[in-house]
Every structure is written in C-alpha cells, then in structure tokens.
Amino acid sequence: MKARVTVMLKEGVLDPQGEAIRQALGSLGFDGVTGARQGKVIELDVAPGTDEAQIGEMCEKLLANTVIESYRIEVL
Prior knowledge:
Mth169, Chain: A, three-stranded antiparallel beta sheet, 2 helices, 32% helix
C-alpha cells in the first residue's frame, strides 16, 4: 500500500524558497505569478492495514515540523 504525505509551510511562515521561485518565474517572463509556496512530497510504502492515524503519527514525530509546517495525507 502507498501513502503520499504533502508537507507545506503554514500560512504566515516566511517561505524564502517560494519567493525565489516567484522571482525566477517573473524573470523568465511569467509575470502572472503573484505568489509561490514550496513544500515536499514524501511517498511511503506501508504494510497493509497501516491506517491514516499511524501515518499521522509518523508525520508528527518525524516527517513534518508541526510548529511551522502542516501536512496532508493521501492513502493511495
């Protein structure tokens, strides 16, 4: 079974990588981009029967810094 965890900085947390992406796109002529946020996607191969609560615990303990990041879990 596969699970996909998407980790993003929380709203209000400065995202310098996202800002660099926005500026770079502007310099390439993509002037319509007014903001960008950068995050990470983690794909996990988990044993059958692993539930979303267990994956959430993985996020809380290791995969996300919950002080400044939020996460979304998709079981595929």
